[in-house]
Amino acid sequence: MIKVQRISMNDPLYEQACALRERALLEQVGLTMAKFKAAFPGVEERFEHFVAVFDHPNGPRVVGCASLLCDEPEKGVGKLMQMAVDPQRQGEGIGRKLVVAVEARAFGTLKLTDLVCHARGEAIDFYQALGWNPIGDRFDEVGIEHQKMGINAGVLEPGIS
Predict the structure, then answer these.
(1) Which residue in 132, 79, 66, 73 sits closest to 106, CA to CA?
(2) Residue partners of 35: CB distance under 8 A and separation at least 6
(3) Rounded to whole angstroms, how far apart are CA atoms 118 and 145?
(4) 3-state secondary structure of 74
């Protein structure tokens, strides 16, 4: 069973989430967590961190993660960033669970009006299936094709969080 939860940077699961981000996202563009933190000072501390956890017999294992940056790029808007699912666990609905948790936090507790993300080209259909819409044209970010995607609180149907 996969459980999604919000964690702090002090949580023991945070290091696993960072390791997954490095493997699945950052290494592809020549970054480490240390380089990411240096390139974006203070951002890591502003993130709300979410992890998808599998109860393994040897202890909990992070199999997915996502970060929410509030009031970015403007007040009332959140940016979903650094979302990754362990490649061996993709296709199991873990990414969907992470996005749903971020949406629930953003639109419920935090009362944000909109969420945006920069989706890699191969993830555009994933976000569209969850009700997110493309914004503008595709663009190159860190040498990879991306599409700005967005969803607002009014798009979600009642009972979906």
Answers:
(1) 79
(2) 26
(3) 10
(4) coil
Model confidence, pTM: 0.91
Question: How is residue 120 written in tokens?
Answer: 């890699």
Catalogue the E-assigned strands of 86-126. 114-120
DSSP E strands, 17-121: 48-56, 59-70, 77-85, 114-120
Tens of pLDDT, residue by residue over 33-82, are 999 999 999 999 999 999 999 999 999 999 999 999 999 889 999 999 99
